[in-house]
Amino acid sequence: MRKPVMAGNWKMNKTRDEALQFIYAVSDKLPSKDKLDSIICAPAIILRDLVKRQGDNLRIGAQNSHFAESGAYTGEVSPVMLSSTGVEYVILGHSERRAYFNETDETVNLKIKAALSHDLKPIVCCGESLEERENGTTHSVLEKQITLGLKDIKEEELETIIIAYEPIWAIGTGKVASAEMADEACGYIRSLIEKLYSKKASDKIRILYGGSVSTKSVSELMAQPNIDGGLVGGASLNADSFIELCEKAI
Ligand code: 13P
Q: N or C: which end of the chain has fewer CB within 10 A?
């Protein structure tokens, strides 16, 4: 019932030439957009170039957005600017942005609202640290991130939002969460959506798992009832590997 999603997060990788080579290599090899939403989230400076060449079955996303439409925020990119490039998605609240750029649940909430008002579809990240997992506070961490992140967002707006559960200890470490562990956390997020909105909203929302997803682990993760797709860093950088992830996701 929920269309699967395979989203690559390139982080701060690839020059313009490397990105274009990737796009040409994948463009006619991805599953049909009726079956899968295939997305690449790239550095802001190359978004327009990628959108122009995205083809039928790939969509492009940004990795961050400011919440203001314009202003004295040196170095930042606004949702108006992103929208004008033709990108469809934007990752918000990634743990690397929370850790290195002081993003909080409150700024993530402002960014989600700003993105929605400029027709960008947010991919909202949440997830616990290793210490929180070991302390047994994973659920309360997720509850705080989801409740504050989605504050004052209406049920009809939720329909364009994708949530990504990314346990920080699994990101870039090669230490993928077990499929059961990932499904349990995504199921908990789904139950929070039911509590905050409705059963209908929780049945509809797409929840991705991210953290060392590879062509080896993707099938088992995708087979879990609460996991609708992947948000993939390292394994999305290689064209063949991204194509394989997309094929295995459907
Ligand atoms: P890796 O797949 O490299 O662990 O990165 C995950 C991630 O942070 C995606 O947003």
A: N
